[in-house]
Specification:
The complex is a heterotrimer of chains A (about 350), B (about 325) and C (about 325). Chain A has about 350 residues and is α/β, with parallel strands linked by helices. In chain A, about 30% of the residues lie in helices and about 20% in strands. Chain A has two domains: about 5-220, P-loop containing nucleotide triphosphate hydrolases (Rossmann fold, 3-Layer(aba) Sandwich); about 230-340, no CATH class. Chain B has helices spanning about 5-35, 50-55, 65-75, 90-125, 130-145, 150-160, 175-205, 210-215, 220-255, 265-270, 275-305, 305-310. The longest helix of chain B has about 40 residues, at about 220-255. Chain B has twelve helices and no strands. With about 325 residues, chain B is mainly alpha-helical. Chain C has a single domain (about 35-310), classed as MetI-like (MetI-like fold). Chain C has eleven helices and no strands. Chain C has helices at about 20-30, 35-45, 50-70, 105-140, 145-155, 160-170, 175-205, 205-215, 220-255, 265-275, 280-310. In chain C, helix 9 runs parallel beside helix 10 (about 265-275) and helix 10 packs antiparallel against helix 11 (about 280-310). The chains are: A alpha/beta (about 350), B mainly alpha (about 325), C mainly alpha (about 325). The interface between A and B is medium-sized, with 32 and 24 residues.
Amino acid sequence: MALLEVRDLRVQFETPDGVVQAVNGIDFDVHAGETLAVVGESGAGKSQLVMAIMGLLAENGSATGKAEFEGRDLMQMSAKELNRIRGRQIAMIFQDPMTSLNPFLTIEKQMTEVVMHHQGLRKDEARAHAVEMLRAVRIPDPEERVKQYPHEYSGGMRQRVMIAMGLLCEPDLLIADEPSTALDVTVQAQITQLVGELRDKSNMSVILITHDLAVVAEICDRIIVMYAGEMVETGTVEDIFYRPRHPYTQGLLASVPRLDRLSDDDLHAIPGNPPNLLDLPTGCRFRDRCEKAAEVCRQVPPLQVLDDGCMSRCFIDMKSGEILSVADVPSPDDAGDDPVMEGRE
Amino acid sequence: MNQEGILRHSATRLLGLIPTLLVLITIAFFLIRVAPGGPFDGEKILPPEIRANLDAKYHLDEPLVQQYFRYLGQIITFDFGPSFQYKDWTVNELIARGFPVSMTVGGLAMILAFIVGTLIGIIAALRQNTAVDYSVMGVAMLGISIPNFVVAPLLILVLAVYQGWLPAGGWDWSIQRMVLPVVTLALPVIAYIARLTRGSMIEVLHSNYIRTARAKGLPGYLVIRRHALKPALLPVISFMGPATAGLITGSVVIERIYSIPGLGSYFVQGALNRDYTLVMGVVIFYGVVIIVLNFIVDLLYAWMNPKIRYDEVQ
Amino acid sequence: MNTPADVHIDDPGAAMPQPEDPFAAAMAEQDIPGRSLWVDAWHRLLKNRAAVISGIIMFVMLLLVIVGPMLSPWEGDFTDWDNTASPPNFETGHWFGTDAVGRDILVRTLEGGRISLLVGLVATLVSLAIGVTYGAIAGYYGGFTDRIMMRIVDIIYALPFMFFVILLMVVFGRHIVLIFVAIGAVNWLDMARIVRGQTLGLKNTEFVEAARACGVDHKDIIRRHIIPNLLGVVMVYVTLTIPQVILVESFLSFLGLGVQEPMSSWGALVNDGAQDMESSPWTLVFPAMFLTVTLYCFNYIGDGMRDALDPKDRA
């Protein structure tokens, strides 16, 4: 059994302009010790996916589906039960270190409250633990700095504090929502490396949300690629980087500027803009921007699954590279009771 | 907390108050002097020699500017001079009589307003967009829309005249006589504080650090008490300065309606009777009170907000 | 964004634009019509039920006070000796009753409304004029000018303003124009602060910088960038100042320092009514109701406008 099993997760928001379907039926597993990357443009639904799992959606948001963590469905839990898991077995760090720490409390207070609440430690024990953790994330002079306030730390250091805070209770799963996006490039590398190191030491699983493929290559095992609220491709890091099947994934990879291929060509970009979730095209959501789009793409594309677990939501056959016609697509009956083969509208 | 920083901060602020005081005194002085009629005009017509004597005694025959500087000199020694209206009293004595009364009513009103206002505001924020929220805020809006002098007579009518539970006015330092004036005075302030607290709390609850606190698995009451309360209350603390000024203003009407011998009543009487020294004295006195209170609020705010507290050092 | 259709024909390196470009067509399909800030705000305001209802009530109120007295058979100062201090009564035609000397309360209330609303409007305009000018100058010129000007505001702000208004009224008498000026002159401070804050912020925004970089001169910048962005905030404050001013005038009247007889305002009426409230409560209740409802509605409208123009305030 996987550590986290997510089935048919959907997230929607009520806005003055209508109901926005931010996440439209995502399935994935996270195994113990595995690092999963969730990749996609802004607005693809990556953050909302994990916010729904953690029970942190905004007031106008609602989610359906299953998210079984160690056998128990998080989506069905009460706030009280969720609170026993959040911060203790599942930890989350966010994108924006400048505003994610309470400016009115010392670092010590914000860190010790986690272990004091979840593990019943005394204040001095909690403090020692916090200092140790700060040392592990390489904050210099932790005994002194723990007494300081967030505004006395730099952005990179604050993110380290967030990581330290998340790991205090030795969680089984760490969810990192674009942890390095808001930081300088050099600091980005450090943070990413840090997460990798800490993960290695403890066999923790990680869900890393990012739009930066370089970060993915560094520390991740598997990748989910999301577009407009749907999963369009998934596979191991090797699969995705060397054998991308979905045109969107191919476009993403081709957009990364490369040092080994100096040329006068223009930078490759995926044409068009991120989609307006209130006004999506029928059938394949990517077809307006897809270089390989065909007539058949006006239908809902099937989710193809290979034996090794790679998936692609596309009419382009994963093995042959040819465009499937609707007739080629196995109907839901053929697929047996595998839920991922169902089309949806 | 850095001692040196706080001291330096306070000293700078204090110095800044002096020009304010000066402007206050000057404007009040010249305004009241410009008014037609003087302190002795209303009474029976005095024979010219007595009039001349009186004028000389109170230095009213000197050029205006000279009177001004003479007055400044007096102020420095905290001598507000004799009252023109109440012949046997000095202004200092009158202030000493009136202020404790006003301060009691005002102070109690302030405490009541703060406690009730913040409580209501927090409840409304936690139940945002529910019936509780709308009704609480609707009532609060009423509080700032109905003037004191409308509420007071109604309260008196219902609670004092019809029900006879409380006295209709007057002052004898008893609790019963304090209830109505304090409550009436506090009502609009409660309303302002409730709205302010609600808005502030809602904003704080949407901030990223509250999201982090929730993600850490802290239960709701801890998130509110430990993480949201202080940031949410900061704007309310800031508001205490202007709130005091408002209370002082409101007290003028309250004292009238409930026949309370406070400073506000003396002021209005003095203004109508051209009692120069009394009016000046009260205006300056209240000005000083407001300035000092604003100063204290400033310090309180700086103490509560770590960014300011520690930045002063740097 | 450079779709092939955008490529300039004269560019030698460019491909000829396709007659029917699939990307451009698809893009056009997806375009959401843009909405200007004002239209957006207006729609938001209309969704605010409290504000809309308040607006309607205010409109009706305005009609009533302007037209009402003309339709009534009684004049405000007509004393009906046959019906002194009588309660509301449809037969005698005194729908709100009469006061101690037999004046019709309905007409008095409506005429009082004219005065109160007039004072509210004019005094607000006075404080608007002073406040906006002062604030805009301080904000736009910044630096030393700004510091001095704001220091002055700080000093004046610390003064017990009500007392000064009272002083002014006592000193200069109770002329109605003076009331406009006195209240307005004391009330401009908040407006000045807000306008100055906005101007400062706007001056340093990127779009103003960009405009300057394109060579737009000061006048036009003020006209096209600063003023429209000020309008919103100013409108909100005007709507919130009017009830404040009406309240101040009421206080003055209550203390006996407001408009003089035979003119009357709601505050004066309430004062009169309070004195007779045990024997003839209607003399208090009706003007008090009108006053309260007006203030209530203005506050809701002001709030609604603020939320409409800056939704994050309400969340």
